[in-house]
Amino acid sequence: MASCAQLSPQQVDFAPTIGTDGLIQGQGTVSLEVSDKRPGSTIGLRGGAYAQSATITAQAPLRELIERLATQVLAKSGMTVTTSLPETRIDISLEQLTYAVTPLRASIKRSTASAEISVKVERGNMTYVKNHTTSQYIDTVGYASEEKNSVLLNEVFDTVLENLFSDAGLETFLSN
């Protein structure tokens, strides 16, 4: 008798940890606006017999995590975050954070996580816009465990944030 996997919903604890090497540098005052433009809070479905109820969500609001990290990075870069007459306006948007399971062969499953974050920076009549995307996958026998999902999603989230905060074009724009 074969059994079907019944997986529980999962809340992922995102704890962004990006390296300090190669982070952007800048100068002056900036305002910071962070938004989460995803269509909903569900990141993906774990799969299993009742896949629609085996949702993956974030434990804490991702917008707040990104805002806290961005404020720290900007302060370390030499910039001052303010709401009072900033020289530069920075808008960061989480466009996508997804998780999907694809059957490969027999009992092998591929779990794929993807993230996209965009930045728009305005200073005077000049604008800098860029999207950063990343994707990673793991192959497992059966469905990935909560721990493996958490590691995969945190790696993707960290990578897209690290790409944003080490963007050479952004640094050049902020330094001029």
What is the secondary structure topology, with strand pairs?
Elements: E1 10-12, E2 28-36, E3 42-45, E4 55-58, H1 62-76, E5 79-81, E6 88-105, E7 108-123, E8 126-141, H2 146-165, H3 168-175
Parallel strand pairs: 1-4, 2-5, 2-6
Antiparallel strand pairs: 3-4, 6-7, 7-8
State the shape.
Answer: elongated
Tell me about the largest β-sheet. 5 strands, mixed
One letter per element, helices H and strands E, the order comes to EEEEHEEEEHH
Mean pLDDT across residues? 92
What does this structure look like?
With 176 residues, the chain is an alpha/beta fold. 24% of the residues lie in helices and 41% in strands. The protein has helices at residues 62-76, 146-165, 168-175, and strands spanning 10-12, 28-36, 42-45, 55-58, 79-81, 88-105, 108-123, 126-141. The protein is elongated, with a radius of gyration of 19 Å. The chain starts with 9 loop residues before the first strand and ends with a helix.
Search tags:
single chain, 176 residues, alpha/beta, 3 helices, 24% helix, 41% strand
Quick recap of the structure?
The chain has three helices and eight strands; from the N terminus they run ββββαββββαα.
